[in-house]
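Putative transcriptional regulator, Crp/Fnr family, pasting as requested.
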Amino acid sequence: MSIKSTIESLDFFSTLKTQDVELLTSISTLQSYNSEYVLYYEKEESNNLLFLVSGLAKTYKIDKHSNEIFLYYIYKESLISEITNIKNETLTSFSNVALVEDSQILSIDYKEFKKHFLEKNLLCLELVNEISLRSKKIESLINREFIFDSVEKVAMMLYSDLDMFNKLKRHDISLILHIQPATLSRVLNRLKRNKIIDIMQGKVTILDTIALREIGND
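Structure tokens follow.
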């Protein structure tokens, strides 16, 4: 797929006129990367605004013991870059971002993007929406790390991201939620006994969405 076709396929740019798409195409590049490739590191500055066209990425930090602390996933057709101040000419990463799957990335010259689009009030609403979605992810992260107990953590992930839960190994889920594998097993068995979920061949299906949501929102 060409750069222009890629831009036209993304909802973020759907309000642009033909001439605007042409201009955006001229300041953009499209590249493919293999899984495990690190797009950027924490506090690293970048001159490019990145969108995940296809694939899957994760954000994470490294603690003082060199342990990886998972934050959240970034899904296809989403903004990757973190924008904390639109007045800046460069973008600074809050966390490390690595690809979980083979992915395709749309890279846009941020300085030119600001000049030709944001400063002309184009795509501002779309950008605010992306920032809002990122804020909600941070809110969920805070709940997961500091407020929720193990049952609420598992329920929240099942309710909000069942496909990813079933795709990952139980050990990896435990690391993401910062609970012991044995604790994860106990929680899943408890939810199954209460007929909120079912587990067949290691895959979880939700039987009572309302009950699961209530647990995750407690």
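Note for the archive: The mean pLDDT is 92.
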